[in-house]
TrEMBL record:
Its main location: membrane. It is found in: Cell membrane. One of its GO terms (molecular function) is ATP hydrolysis activity. It comes from the Bacteria. It is a peripheral membrane protein. Residues 10-233 form the ABC transporter domain. Keywords: Antibiotic resistance, ATP-binding, Nucleotide-binding, Transport. One of its GO terms (biological process) is response to antibiotic. It comes from Sediminivirga luteola. Pfam families: ABC_tran. One of its GO terms (cellular component) is plasma membrane. This is ABC transporter ATP-binding protein.
Amino acid sequence: MTEKPQPPAIEARHLVKRYKHKTAVDGISLRVARGETFGILGTNGAGKTTTVEMIAGLRKPTEGSVRILGLDPFTERAKVRQILGVQLQGAYLHGSLTARELVDLYRGFYPDPLDADEALTMVELTDKARTKFDDLSGGQMQRLSIALALIGRPQVVILDELTTGLDPRARRRVWATIESLSEQTVILISHAMDEVERLCDRVALIDAGRVLAHGTPGQLREQAGAVTLEDAFVALTGKDIQGDEEED
Ligand SMILES: Nc1ncnc2c1ncn2[C@@H]1O[C@H](COP(=O)(O)OP(=O)(O)OP(=O)(O)O)[C@@H](O)[C@H]1O
């Protein structure tokens, strides 16, 4: 008997999210292989966060289905929580707990978490271990939320705006951390082309709730006849990556 093929890390089929006056996601399908680092690029309001929130089981799709390593994030929530790490924009963390207390709290959710000191060192927050979350700078909060997303050694990690607001040194440190995750599957939402070029094996360009193009950064440049990924983005979407949010 032949062995059953293993399911991909992520299989999202025809995801649609409709609000009363807005279709935020309009039929997005994505397949991400195990171990891949997959980038999602798009202008503000393109539907990136809504897409990954549906993938993570945090927002119910109007239509479509998601499987993470073959599991349904809605009906198999407890199992998915053990294999998925999520860092979302503006995630709420208990502000009166210190960095170390938050690390300890999150460690308790997983069977084989990273060592607490290792987690703080990974994002260079060792000297902030006793600082309350509310008293951290924006960049430090972000670095802590990255450490918390990785603390359970998740097989799949979703990172939204990984290094937005970080200084150049902190960005490089975070990149090195992501590059060290060779076994894990990473979904990365980003506006930063240098970050996507450096980290992502494949990229989906999203605009107005749809995938406009996908492929390796090199394939996207080639498809658009562009020298840089940023030029490819502008050519394929007709928009500037830093452009204003679309009107509803
Ligand atoms: N709860 C909601 N109700 C109505 N519309 C919403 C809701 N959440 C998001 N939207 C709209 O859906 C669209 C997609 O939003 P989303 O946050 O997914 O975009 P994004 O690509 O992540 O943008 P950004 O880069 O600014 O984070 C936007 O036009 C947004 O205003």
